[in-house]
Specification:
CATH superfamily of the largest domain: FAD/NAD(P)-binding domain
Distance between the termini: 51 Å
Largest sheet: 8 strands, mixed
Helix content: 25-40%
Number of strands: 19
CATH architecture of the largest domain: 3-Layer(bba) Sandwich
Strand content: 25-35%
Number of domains: 2
Order of helices and strands: EHEHEHEHEHHEEHEEEEEHEEEEHEEEHH
Radius of gyration: 21 Å
Bound molecules: flavin-adenine dinucleotide
Structural class: alpha/beta
CATH topology of the largest domain: FAD/NAD(P)-binding domain
Strand order of the largest sheet: 5-6-4-14-15-16-13-17
Length: about 400
């Protein structure tokens, strides 16, 4: 393979570009939106513990491998570009505010221990000792107890994307703004992409257009369920950092950045291609922050945003060669774990593209694998997840 054109400039496309360019491939990235316009930028940057454990699922194996790679990539990206992506083992605290919530945490703790993660169950007093800023929430009866996952990490998506772009450029990758509308296929080869302003040819193609990948893959006769699942976030600027751990309660979380910024997330909304914030959700998220941390004097709402997670049909992202084509590949559908799984996904696809033995069995991720028939209940990653956690949503 001499040259490759990647459609998509989010974390998945840029990570593949960096990996391929590092292997000597001439890479071009086409992206309709970059930086702050991508879902990758909109994400929180939470990496739950990802130990390898017995009976691990394909998605968990990809996350565990990616987690290891992130530690290496973060160091390499810093050395290559001078940009620190802020990867930080801050720990994650999961809170309950009802007896049922505490029971769920106990079950979760058993599950995490079974996976080899370091877990502590905490009563309300221990939660306050651990994060004194939560005292207001505990005194108001909002916190009955918690679970600590000591290995949980956070990183800064915007900085990581900047570092990836810079590293790609240093490796000779050309990144262009282009809105790909269609592909011209001749026999078993993709010949050209038709964009809003012209046509682009390449020897090899990769589709990594996040939630929009399914629409593009339809041109190749590939049915792909990458439907958009919206998530909203509010960013507060505090006079000083209040907490050190990532604080989770149900679907909601607080992520404290060391510079005083506090991310308050999020939602899981199946509302189509509509990446907007809604006033009621912004108000609700601010209410969550106040219910846990008190009145937050001196805080300012810096901005709010929404992103569209690329949902998938069976809990696994889709990574590999597109069936019946000789020169087209795909990596998409990473739903809630696209940041975390980006490194392993990039190396796996690059291995498949360059003929290296893959580190993971690619079969569970293969494009064209049998998916649940249309109309069957979606997997844990969407509707079941909502149903399971609905009781704990504020
Ligand atoms: C609120 C929120 C919080 C999240 N938190 C986390 C988290 O803590 N940890 C985690 O691991 N994941 C998290 N995620 C999920 C993660 O953000 C996604 O899984 C990941 O960003 C998907 O990356 P991507 O590169 O596939 O898609 P995107 O980042 O959406 O990139 C897609 C790219 O394709 C381009 N594109 C689309 N169509 C075309 C076209 N026709 N022509 C040219 N270019 C095109 C877009 O412009 C863009 O550049 C979160 C997501 C949200 C919304």
């Amino acid at each position: 393979m001499n040259d490759c054109c990647i459609v998509g400039g989010g974390i998945i496309g840029l990570s593949i570009a960096r990996e391929l360019a590092g292997r000597g491939v001439k890479v071009r990235v086409l992206a309709r939106g970059r930086g702050a316009e991508t879902t990758s930028w909109a994400a929180a940057g939470i990496f739950p513990p990802a130990p390898l454990h017995a009976g691990i699922s394909p998605a968990d194996a990809l996350t565990a491998w990616s987690d290891k790679l992130h530690r290496l990539w973060s160091k390499d990206l810093h050395a290559e570009t001078g940009i620190d992506n802020g990867l930080l083992p801050s720990g994650g605290l999961y809170l309950a505010r009802s007896a049922a919530g505490l029971e769920r945490l106990r079950t979760d703790a058993t599950r995490w221990r079974g996976r080899g993660a370091e877990v502590d169950l905490l009563d309300a007093r221990a939660v306050m000792e651990c994060e004194p800023a939560l005292a207001g929430g505990a005194e108001a009866g909002e916190i009955l107890g918690g679970m600590m996952l000591r290995e949980e990490q956070q990183f800064r998506p915007s900085r990581h994307l900047d570092a990836l772009e810079e590293s790609c450029r240093k490796r000779g990758v050309v990144i262009e703004e282009a809105d790909v509308r269609q592909f011209v296929v001749r026999g078993t080869r993709v010949e050209r992409a038709v964009t809003a302003t012209g046509e682009i040819t390449a020897g090899t193609w990769v589709l990594s257009a996040g939630s929009w990948t399914g629409g593009l893959a339809g041109a190749f006769g590939l049915a792909l369920d990458t439907r958009p699942i919206r998530g909203q976030i509010v960013l507060l600027r505090l006079p000083r950092p209040l907490i050190t751990r990532i604080v989770n309660r149900g679907l909601n979380y607080l992520v404290q950045r060391p510079d005083g910024r506090l991310l308050v997330g999020s939602t899981i909304e199946d509302v189509g291609f509509d990446p907007i914030t809604t006033p009621d959700t912004v108000t609700r998220l601010l209410g969550v922050a106040r219910s846990l941390l008190g009145d937050l004097p001196g805080s300012v709402v810096e901005r709010s945003w929404a992103g569209l997670r690329p949902g998938n049909a069976d809990g696994n992202p889709t990574i590999g060669p597109i069936p019946d084509l000789d020169n087209a590949f795909l990596s998409a559908g990473h739903f809630r774990a696209g940041l975390h799984q980006s490194t392993g996904s990039a190396v796996l696809l690059a291995d498949l593209m360059t003929g290296h033995p893959p580190h993971l069995d690619p079969a569970p991720f293969a494009p064209g694998r049998p998916l649940p028939p249309a109309g069957t209940k979606p997997p844990e990653s969407t509707a079941d997840y909502l149903a399971r956690t609905a009781a704990t949503i504020d």
